[in-house]
Amino acid sequence: MSCEKGDGDPMEDPLFILESGEVYRNPTEVKMSQIVMPCHANHCGELSVGQLLKWMDSTACLSAERHAGSPCITASVDDIHFEHTIGVGQVVNIKAKVNRAFTSSMEVGITVSCEDLFSSCQWNVCNAFATFVARRTEEGKVQLKQVIPRTQTEQMEYSIAAERRRMRLTHAEIITDLLSSNTAQLGECQEYQGAVSAERTRVESVELVLPPHANHQVSTFGGQIMAWMENVATIAASRLCNAHPTLRTIDMFHFRGPSHIGDRLVLKAIVNNAFKHSMEVGVCAEAYQGAGALRHINSAFMTFEVLDKDRKPRTLPRIRPEPVDGKRRYQEAVARKKIRLDRKYIISCKQTEVPLSVPWDISNQMYLSYNNVSALKIMAARSNWMLSSEKNKVSLYTLEENQILCFKVETHVTVPAEQAFHLLSDLRRRHEWDRHYQQCDVIIQADEDDTIYRVATPCVSKGGKGQDFILLASRRKPCDSRDPYLIALRSVTLPTHPATEDYTRGEVLCAGFSIWEESNAVTKISYYNQATPGVLPYISNDIAGLSSSFYSTFHSCNKYLEENRDSLTVLPPSDR
């Protein structure tokens, strides 16, 4: 393993010193360090992912309980991508902290890194987000206290946690819709010569839940269930390739019900589909006691690779699915692969690696919206903005990091925050106060809060062509008083709306409004934009101090909001 060193994260917080002189540490933070022993490893000398999942779950649960002050149980785990394997003798460092608490659930962020004690090298293994729920008492649900973010990084994670929660709540329904629409387009399963029968990869195993497998609440550890599921999935994957597989990804999953000491857990796994360099294994966990009926505990989809001696993915044999259900699983695995690629391409990339315009379709709408909103929240969480100019209480700020220029315009209005949010979120009316918006039309109403517009803008220089933009607008209401109203904008591409000769196609990487209710009568509006070649001509003179057109624009915005403070706003008509 090579020693990997990053350039540093611009969001990394400097030491935060408390008034007492002590260095601040998040009160919910829990750390675990483990030396990987042979008993933790497989026959290749690598840490079993099942063992790692148990350690991760234990650390995260302790963090959740530290915040809740009461016993907690694992409700769900978001997608996990394992970047590296870990060898015997190396140290696993796990850190968990509560990012945000909602009414009765909380998000815990988990980071896993590996350390080689003999070379002092460290590298990232994976990041994960788990949802924990405080265990019910005789009085009913436990009401969790709010998390108070103290540092810039904590504020960013706190803010984005609301968008991740939104995605979790709609994930199952959206995935079901995408699978049904995508599999309908796939047609019949393709036959391959020499394909391995899926039946050959089928695994079924039973485990008796004993006291060592349970927590202090006599419920089976979520991490233990995940470890047993990983075990049978690995066996199924090995039967396809007759080699040791490496687990790369676990899709988001939810625990459907509890398991307790004395339960018999029935674990089933089968390879759903094999692609050129990876395979998907479906796993199901069910529980029963005595003569009782089976209870569904959990289902998960795991992606495996088989590495050669150079640690490169090997070509895998194809699978021959069973009739009916096997063919359904085969086709759904193809659709899920497409969804994973969208997710990895859009969400996992750093902001500097994301293309300016990403193709939009219904299958990646959920991830594009998440990326759109989280990018704006990350920009808004920056604390090192520099005041560039100010005029009549309209302020222009700039921020330059890693050769990326961002700007922020801030003002206050005497209009209720919710009304300002509704007025500003309808881009069709922006031409009433922003001279750069010549025309704006709705192309697609993806859902109630996400709309795709085509915006035409005039030319900045004489004799040139105007620009047009295809923008995804994602609007979000606050979850609680610590959240603003948000309107996030980013460019997307649509095959139905290619660039034309009449306009130069411009692009927006990240822009939008953050609207804070400071009182019943006063609202703070902040407009953010990450400057791109298509946007910079409209603001460069203001940043250089040669113009104050930003003031004129936001003075008009203030006037527009005042004049329409009592008007009713109507959502754009749906084109879908």
From TrEMBL:
Residues annotated as domain HotDog ACOT-type: 26-138, 199-310
GO terms under biological process: acyl-CoA metabolic process; fatty acid metabolic process
UniProt xrefs under CDD domains: BFIT_BACH
Residue runs in coiled coils: none
TM helices/strands, residue ranges: none
Molecular function, one GO term: lipid binding
Keywords, alphabetical: Cytoplasm, Fatty acid metabolism, Hydrolase, Lipid metabolism, Mitochondrion, Phosphoprotein, Repeat, Serine esterase, Transit peptide
Substrates-to-products reaction catalysed: butanoyl-CoA + H2O = butanoate + CoA + H(+); dodecanoyl-CoA + H2O = dodecanoate + CoA + H(+); hexadecanoyl-CoA + H2O = hexadecanoate + CoA + H(+); tetradecanoyl-CoA + H2O = tetradecanoate + CoA + H(+)
Source taxon at top rank: Eukaryota
Enzyme class, broadest EC rank: hydrolase
Gene Ontology CC entries for this record: cytosol; mitochondrial matrix
InterPro entries, alphabetized: Cytosol_ACT (IPR040170), HOTDOG_ACOT (IPR033120), HotDog_dom_sf (IPR029069), START-like_dom_sf (IPR023393), START_lipid-bd_dom (IPR002913), Thioestr_dom (IPR006683)
Pathway: Lipid metabolism; fatty acid metabolism
Subcellular location: Cytoplasm; Mitochondrion matrix
Sequence ranges assigned to domain START in this UniProt record: 385-555
EC numbers for this chain: 3.1.2.2
Biological role: Has an acyl-CoA thioesterase activity with a preference for the long chain fatty acyl-CoA thioesters hexadecanoyl-CoA/palmitoyl-CoA and tetradecanoyl-CoA/myristoyl-CoA which are the main substrates in the mitochondrial beta-oxidation pathway.
Protein name: Acyl-coenzyme A thioesterase 11
Gene: acot11b
